[in-house]
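Support reply, case 0932

Customer input (verbatim):
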Amino acid sequence: MRKLLAPLALLLASAAPAHAQTVEGAVEGDAILKDFTFHTGEKLPEIRMHYTTLGTPQRDKKGVITNAVMILHGTGGTGKQFFQPQFANELFGPGQLLDTGKYYVILPDNLGHGASSKPSDGLRMQFPKYDYDDMVAAQYRMLTEKLGVTKLKLILGTSMGCMHAFVWGTTRPGFAEKLAPFACQPVEIAGENRMWRTLSIDAIKADPLWKDGNYTEPPLSGLRTAASLTMIAGANPYALQAQYPTRVAAEKYKDEAFARTFGRNDANDTIYQLDSSRNYNPWPNLEKITVPVLWINSGDDFINPPGYSYPQDGVKRMPRARYILIPASAETKGHGTHTWAKFWKDDLAKLMAE
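Our regenerated output:
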């Protein structure tokens, strides 16, 4: 079946190129996790977690890997999205913050995404209804059972990966020595954030071609609506107004951007990806996070807009947390600011030095 709808992570980073560069020394692999039980009680005899690694694991005298870093992608993305130059060229090179000559960098394709197990592999809507706890459990088993990692120097997560970092911090405190959650809130997905997600899901399900997930032709009408909502949700209004100040210019850009992004994902996969945040809510357990935390949002983020009191209230409950709001400008990238390391790498350097 032809794949439809661009990865949401790329749509949300609207200025990102459609095809990421490669990084020298990247190694891909699969962790086959046997007898995987989901939070619903549903089980699969095995699931696949695909991953890419950079660098080489270093071990202490007891054989424990001491230099592992995990970077977690956003909704609809893959680990390889971090090969984009605005991320990789700023962080992975010699002498840079996450120099792959020093660190063992792990980039998973999360459950339901990329080359990991997902509904479009064959089960369609019969695939277990995974949530963020299941996704983090799969990451944990990938690390410990396949890669032999029992401790992480850092978890850096963007968007959905940001939320996963908060799940890690509250459910497996101390596994990661430091957390860098970028572009999220540690609260239940509600309000407008839940609304745009369910509007996208509803649009796909309302398409007559969807047929309860058993389509023979992609439900293009529903996918178009979902893609359109995601483009708006991920955009920086300041930059768009500055760059496309007339109706003609704005509509020309809209058509070009849509043409670049529409047509790369499966409808059922998209439903699962958007709905997997439904049970997320680390807020009651933030006190469990006692490691250093660098939490960053951007002022032009439609999905996580400034003005909420959650950051100020949440930082008070995490003894070693620091919150930064990147000011909105014509240079920031909307929700996708999280993937442009130039905006936050100096702050990450301070975290890594703690």
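We compared this against your earlier run and they match. Two observations from our side: Residues 138 and 189 are 21 Å apart (CA to CA). The first strand starts at residue 27 and ends at 37. Please reopen the case if you see a mismatch on your end.
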